[in-house]
């Protein structure tokens, strides 16, 4: 290979590298629910691709025990909606007592608005349950990366 051919190959390689899309750093997503009145922070979230799911994790700030949240986010095959199934787990207050909450959130992939349902089970004697449905919206958290806790 001549020196000129090497230079062309190197130039082509540099153009390819420079033209490649730069992946933006994932930001924290804040999902605001109407009922219960709560915000869920998902750390380092980015939308999954069409017909793809991804694990998500975060917490619910503002509560005394900073409930941890884990679950999945799945995007519909037509890319129109994102469906979240989330489980929160708080620090147990005392032996034999605690609670768990389940959230199902469906958001429009563009406007990030939609609906939610919530179920709560208090592990006590007797056990207590609660449930509600309402609206939901999401946006990049402010600040973009919410410190934990």
List the defining traits of the structure above:
globular; mainly beta; single chain; 1 helix; 50% strand; 149 residues; eight-stranded antiparallel β-barrel
Head-to-tail CA distance between termini: 59 Å
Query: For the residues shown, what is the average pLDDT?
Result: 82
How would you sum up the major sheet?
8 strands, antiparallel, barrel
Strand content: over 45%
Shape: globular
Q: Roughly how many Å is the radius of gyration?
A: 21 Å
**How many β strands by DSSP?**
8
Structural class: mainly beta
Spans of at least 5 consecutive residues with low confidence: 9-24
Residues in helices, as a percent range: 10-25%
Total helices: the number is 1
Q: Topology as H/E string?
A: HEEEEEEEE
Strand order of the largest sheet: 1-2-3-4-5-6-7-8
Describe this structure as you would to a colleague.
By secondary structure, this protein is mainly beta. The chain is 11% helix and 50% strand. The protein is built from one helix and eight strands; from the N terminus they run H-E-E-E-E-E-E-E-E. It has one helix at residues 3-19; strands spanning 27-33, 38-45, 53-59, 68-75, 81-89, 98-108, 113-123, 128-140. It has an eight-stranded antiparallel barrel with strand order 1-2-3-4-5-6-7-8. Strand 3 and strand 4 form a beta hairpin. The longest helix is centred in the N-terminal third of the chain and has 17 residues, at 3-19. The protein is globular, with a radius of gyration of 21 Å. The termini are far apart.
